[in-house]
Structures are given as structure tokens and as C-alpha cells.
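Write out the bound-state structure for adenosine-5'-triphosphate.
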Amino acid sequence: MDGGVVPTLAPALVSVEDLTVRFVTRDSTAHAVNGVTFSVRPGEVLCILGESGSGKSVTLRALMRLLPPGKTRISGSITVDGQDVLALNPAALRRLRGGLVSMIFQEPMTALDPVYTIGDQIAETVMRHKGVSKTVALARALELLELVKIPSAASRLNNYPHELSGGLRQRAMIAMALSCGPRLLLADEPTTALDATVQIQVLILLRKLQKEMGMGTIFVTHDLGVASEIADRIAVMYAGRVVEEGPVADVLANPLHPYTRGLMASTVHGQDRSRDIDAIPGSPPDLRQLPPGCAFAPRCSLAAGECLSAVPEPRFPAPGRMARCVRLGVPAFA
Amino acid sequence: MINLLIRRIFYAVPIAFGVSVVCFSLVYLAPGDPLQTILPSDASAETIALVKAAYGFDQPLPIQFLKWLGRVMLGDFGQSIATRRPVSLEVMGALHNTATLALFAVPIAFSTGFSMGAIAGCFPGSWLDRLLTGTAVIGVSLPNYWFGIVLVILFAVEAMVLPATGMGANGSDGFSIFRWADARFMVLPVITLSMVPIGIIARSTRAAVSEVMGQDFVSTLRAKGLSEPAIIRHVLKNALPQVLAVMGLQFGYLMGGSILVETVFTWPGSGFLLSKAIINRDVPVLQGTILMLALIFVATNLLVDLAQSLIDPRIRRT
Ligand SMILES: Nc1ncnc2c1ncn2[C@@H]1O[C@H](COP(=O)(O)OP(=O)(O)OP(=O)(O)O)[C@@H](O)[C@H]1O
Ligand SMILES: [Mg+2]
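---
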């Protein structure tokens, strides 16, 4: 994973630049995403890691403009396969959603429509994007269920979501997401709601399909273990900012940002997958009132005066690596 | 599906039985002695006993009930104390008249209420939502007999374009909805009757639709690239079972006929009959009317249940 060399060769499939998302209500403004920049090349898997509320889901939804239009303010730029997502008209946006880009959600329980069969829901997507008849679309749905290894797929086609186990439901969700051959797959904690063994099976399946179909993928997770298995690169988010980014092996072997180190300290020992990241003392800042400096400073043992005055600019200490921390060179890091 | 149908019908039987027990005991629950109205106040003990025997009031209650039930099953509800006509004729005639109004009020109220609620629920918080929800609240909270009187004053007294009351020259028996001379008598009662169901259905549809709109799967539908109409179709199908439950109740109320509205328009329907029967202490008519209405409720519920489980497979299991 020579992250430093490849980016200059392959043009990015997705490039997000200075993405900012705020939720405005009458009495407050939540700064959910604050200047996020990253890119994903075709076939590459980027894992976004971070604790609850750090803005991972919001970032992902912004890529498909799935945030509630009334109260959401988005700025910055999002380009997917050459299209300026934030400027798309509604018809073009609908072509992008489910066609070029598709999304797998966290809760297979609630993400499928309970009163339509699995087959109908997959076929609907296929009909929408491929303009084929229902019969053809259902045949395609059957192929897809077989592709995601759902046993006795033909009869599952007529099942309603509640008749499937969580793992099968998530496989159906994956089948639906892949139905129109997307070039970019967004997966928002697709395995978090599943049992540990099922989690691994679904993960392996996803990784395999991603490789076969060569999709660029953005994979959101809480779980360092999951990230290390599936990611090419990792971006660590904190309070709506990417605080560290780099090739997965490098970041895991040598985390640069104190927050990433905290994350690893809280998960590495004992390999406890289900344990969360909140072993770092303190709690994340209030997104309605972000401090002027580094948002992590109040919880950081290395924080100094300069951390509190301004948001640290990105630094690039090694090829392909980025961290937003002014104390990178401090001896305590060694 | 057939299994489900049979099971639901089986559930309905004990309910219908319970309803008939309640109707039967009305005679004893109703304040005052039903015989009082037909007997002169100075009747001798002998006469009272004679009349009691004639009506079967001297036998043990369970026997009275079984006999009554047996007759009811054959369509014999006894005789009206007030008019001496068979109760079945009175009740059927009144139900027919009320059903004639409902035939129009139900589609009008259900489609208007549902559309208003669906539009409001799809755009919660918008000015359209506020307008429609506000209208629905007015519909529910205005007393409908007052609204009926206002309509009479406007259209019958002032503008003189529609008749005020009654069923027209041909009367209840000769009434035909296909003759405008008759049908124009229905216009104001139908509008008046529709008000409350429109309001109630609009409000519950709005609640159901906006709740479904907030569910996770709607994001999935958007993420699939579906158009807004296609998304709304999914949402409405999800909201429909809840709405059907409310519609079933409203259908029952419309078949029950509003006592006040039918009185304002002197429309000889089931509500009108009920109020007459209450005033006259006409217990057989009360029993017959209430039993029929209750059975209509039970049947409606059965249909609603079946429709709900056709739409939402999760309901089928229970
Ligand atoms: N539609 C919304 N309206 C208002 N605030 C929102 C909305 N969606 C998200 N937020 C807020 O934005 C912040 C970031 O949320 P987000 O869902 O991106 O977190 P996350 O990193 O995905 O966390 P988790 O791991 O719990 O899924 C949270 O504080 C959340 O309350
Ligand atoms: Mg999330």
C-alpha cells in the first residue's frame, strides 16, 4: 500500500473539498462537518473512523445529498466521477443515487420497506435505473440474491424483510445497493447491528464483491478491527474534521494524532471488537459551540497553549499521510 | 389467506355474541320500566302480570335471552311498542335511509380527508400543512348540527337553491337517488355529515404519513434514486393500515347516523329512529337498532382487519 505514489497516477473517483455541513434551527446551529477534504480512487476502500457524533454519517449522506434540505447548509465541493454533486438538478441527482453511487445503511431492520417484498424492492431499483420490465428486473434481483449468497434465493425473493434474519436482510440490502453496478459504494456501519460471526461473513462478502466489481468504497465504522481488514486507507474523524489520514497499515503501525493513539489504545488490547472508542477520558465537544482551537485539545494530554488558539492546519509528515496536530514533532510522540 | 379469514371470522363470533347480550340486557339496564309506557298508571296487578306474560318478561333471564336470540337470528326483533310495527321493518327502513346518506358521505369524506392528510403529512411544517391541518381541526371542532343549520340558512333560506329538511315529495319509500328532485334533499345532510370524518381522517392520515416519512427506509428509497411520487407511494402504503382503522370507525359512525344531524334535517335514518325510541322508551326498537349497528361495527372491523393484513404482512402473524 504505497499511498504516496498512487494518487498522482489514478484520477480520483470522489473528491471532497472543504466540505462543511451545518444544521440550522431557530435557536442553534450544529456544526456537524467542518472542512473535510479527502478523495477516493476507483477500486479503493477508504475507512472513516471516529466515535459517535463525529460526523461520519453526515459526511456520507452529504455525498448523496440525502440530508434534510430545509435545515441543512452544505458548502465546499463534492465531485463524483466528474459530476459536481452539490450543483446537480433533481433529475440528475436521482440518476446518481442508486446508479453511480449507492449506500448501505447500518440498520437492516429499518432500512428496508416493511410492506414490500425483497424482490420488489430490488426490482424497483433496477427498473428505475435500467428501464427494464418488471420480469427482467425480478430475474436480475434473483441473480443478485445469489451473488450475495442468500440460500434458496428464489423463494427469498417473495419474502418480506421481517421474514429474514438480520444477516440475510443486510445481504439483501447489499444486493440492492449493487443492483445497478455503482462505481461508488457508501457503507455506513453495515455490520455494526449484526452478531459477531455474521458480521465477519458479511464483511468478507462485501470485501470480495468490492474487489470483483472494482468499486470505490467509503466504509464508515467504529471498529478498528473492521477497518484494518477492509480498508486501503483510513481517515479518522473528530468533531466534524478529519484529524488524521493515511494508508491503513501505516496509520495502525504509527498513529500520528493523539486522538488516533487514544482510539488504538482503547481497542488494541484484548481484541475486543464490541468495545467502543470512548475509553478516552472526557467527551466530544458540543457541536453547537466548537472551541476556536483544536477540538480535541480539552481531552488531549499533550495540549499546549498554541492548540487552543487556532484549528491546526493539516501537516504531511510522510508521503500519503496527513494529521492535523501542531504537536507532531513533540518528543512524547516517539 | 383463507386461514386468516376463517380465524378472523371466528374472533368476530364471540364479539357479536357479547354485543347481543348487552343489547338484550338493555331492557333491564334502561332506567324505568318498559311496561310503564304502555300500561295506564292505575293498572291492576293482574293486568301487569298479564302483559308481562304476553311479552315474556315473567320467565327467567337466560330463557328470555335465548328465546330473544333465537327470534333475532330469524330476523324477528319483536314489535315496536310505539308504532306496533315489526321492529325489523322500522330498523331496516331507517338503516336504508342512513346508508343512502353514507353512500355519498363515505367516499366524499374518506377521499377528501385522506388527500388532505396525505398532503399535509408529506410536507410537515409547510404552510400547506398548516392550512390543511387547521381546516381539519375546524372540521372536527365545529358542532356539526350548528354547521347544518348554517348551511340551511345559507342555501335553503337565503339562496333558496336547496331544500332545508326531509326527503322530498316521494317520502322515504319512494325516494330515489337517481332523481334530482329527491337527491337534492341529500346535499346538505351529506355535506354536514362529512365534516367530522373529513377532519378526523385528515388528522390521523397526517399523523401516520408524517410518522412514516421519518422512518429510516425512506432514506433508502431516496438513496435508490426513486422519484418523489414513487417514494410517496411507499409511504402511503405504509401509512394505510393505521388510516384504515380510523376509517372503519368513521364508517361505523356514519352508518349509526348522527342523531343531531338527522334531527336537524328531519332525515328518517337510524339516528333519528334511535332518538325517537329513546324518547318513547321503545326498548325493542332500541335493541334492534343498537344490535344492527353493533353488528355493522363488528363486520366493518373484520373487513378493516383483513385489509390491514393484506397490506402489511407483519399483521398476518398475530
Ligand atoms: N438531520 C439532522 N439534524 C440535526 N442534527 C443532525 C442531523 N443528522 C445528524 N445530526 C447531528 O450531527 C452530528 C453528527 O452526526 P453523525 O450521524 O454524522 O454522527 P456519526 O459519526 O455517524 O455517529 P454514529 O457513530 O453514532 O453513527 C451529531 O451531533 C448529530 O446529532
Ligand atoms: Mg452514523
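---
Chain A touches chain B at residues 61, 64, 66, 70, 94-99, 102-103, 105, 107, 110-116, 124-125, 128-129, 160, 162-163, 173, 176 (CB under 8 Å).
Chain A is about 35% helix and 20% strand.
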